[in-house]
Every structure is written in structure tokens, then in C-alpha cells.
Amino acid sequence: MPRIKLPTPPRPSALQPKPPRPGEEDKKAGPLDVAAEGGIRAVDWIDERTSLSSATRWLLFRKVPKGTNWFYTLGSASLIAFVSQATTGVFLAMYYDPSANHAYESVRYITNEAFLGAFVRGMHKWGSSVMVVLVFLHMARTFVFGAYKYPRELNWIIGVVLLILTMAMSFTGYLLPFDQRSYWATIVGVNINGSGPIIGPFLSDFLRGGPDFGATTLSRFYAIHMLLIPGLLAALIGAHLYLVAKLGTTAPPWMKAEADPELTKATA
Q1: For the chain, N or C: smaller number of CB within 10 Å?
Q2: Per-residue model confidence as pLDDT tens digits over 50-82
């Protein structure tokens, strides 16, 4: 019995080549055109299954109030500072050894011998101070402009938690070089936490990893600094950005809304 060859099924419309524009029928596609067309098809294939383009348009393209100025960029600057800290922190973690015997030596190796180690460590060290300053300025701008009021109360609460986590990130990272200054400064900070009411002593024991300050404290601070707080920061930043995109931004307090002529005529 002869074998019957079935016809090849047609390609989906998304994968079919686009018709040429008028006047370009005779133009031959070059390698760059073929590569660009392939990239467009790949993006279309992903977008058809994820609808990322609509989500991106919803997040990026929205109306902004009249009077928006450079003060509104403090939030984006804080986000960029966080991304910079996360990126440089990953490279530092490749060389850092969170043990009491080798922590200081690993930091010395990063600073003096590793390729661009001093540059990356300097960005991480001074970037932490920059991030704290930017977050404080962003919170101050939000308070002065009254952007914490209805319906943005939840976003304000998330921002306060982000500020606390940023301070905690700076505190836990200060011990990691494990030199004399960071060692004794951390002891002072932990003792100050221990003087708090009710949960103070428990918080100090949690940070020390026991009743005494020892090698376990360094590994605990490293785990909190590298895993716990960055994960919480990333999740809350995502929620913060979602609420900003959903609720929009407020106009500066000195800007007055213009009366709608039709609304004024209707209420007259």
C-alpha cells in the first residue's frame, strides 16, 4: 500500500513574514534585516504567551500631574542605588569569607589584590551611604508634598518599612570587614538594641546568635545582610512600585487644580 504524504500545515500568522511596504517589493532583505525580523518574531512569540507588553505599557506610560519636577526622581534614584548595591554585593560575595579567621583577610584581598576590587568595594561602601540619604530625602519629599494621604496610606507604610530595612542593611553590613572599628561599633549597636523594651533583649540575642558576641555573630550578620533583608527589600519595592503605578503621583502642594468649565456650568 503506497504511503500517503500529508501536506505540511501552514505556519501561524505570527510567524509568517510581513508583506513588503509599497515601493520596497524589489528590495532584497540583508542579513541585518533578517536578524531584526527574527528578533521581532521571537519577542512577538513571547509576548503572545505572557502579555508583557501590556503590563509594561501599564507600568511605564501613565499620566503625571502638572508641576512634576526633579523632586519626583528621588524614588527612582533610590531604586538605582539599591540595584547598584545588589550588583556590587554579588561580586564582593564571590571573594568574601564570612568566618572570624578569614573575614578581614578576604576584605584585604578584595581591596588590594582582586581585579577592580577596590573600585567595587568603594562603590558598595559609599553607595550604602548614598542609598540611605536618598531614601531619607524621598521620604521627606513625600511628607512635605502630602503624598502619604488617602488613598496612598498603604504605600506610605511600605515606604516606612523600606526605610527601616535600609537602615538594618547598613547596620548588618558594617560588621562584615571585621576590623577593630566595625567589631566594637557593632557591639555598641547590639547593646543599644538590647536596651529596648520587651523585645530588646531577645533582639540582641538573635543578632549575636547567643548570649555572647562571637564567630556565630559574623555569619548571622552576613546571612541577614545578604539573604534576608535583600529579599524583603525586593518584594516590598515591587509592591511599592505597583501601588505607585496604580494610584499615580500627587501634584505639588502649590499647584491648584483648574476648574472644568463644563462641570462649573453644570453646577451653576
Answers
A1: N
A2: 878 778 877 777 778 888 889 999 999 999 999
Q: Any idea of the CA torsion for 186, 190, 193, 199, to the nearest 10 degrees? A: 150
pLDDT digits 0-9 by tens, 102-134: 999 999 999 999 999 999 999 999 999 999 999
Are 256 and 105 in contact by the 8 Å Cβ rule? The answer is no
Measured CA distances, 239 to 14, 47, 52, 53 (Å)? 34, 23, 18, 19
How many helices, marked H, and strands, marked E, lie in the chain? 11, 0
Q: What is the C-alpha to C-alpha distance for residues 218 and 210, in angstroms, rounded to an integer?
A: 12
Contact 166, 135 (CB under 8 A): yes
pTM, two decimal places: 0.81
Q: Which CATH architecture is the domain 69-177+227-247 placed in?
A: Up-down Bundle (1.20)
Report the C-alpha gap between 97 and 197 in whole angstroms.
35
**Euclidean distance between CA atoms 259 and 142, whole angstroms:** 25
Instruction: Give domain limits for the chain.
Output: 69-177+227-247
User: What pLDDT shows up at residue 8?
Assistant: 58
Cell of residue 186, nine digits: 557593632
The H-or-E segment that residue 49 falls in is helix 31-50
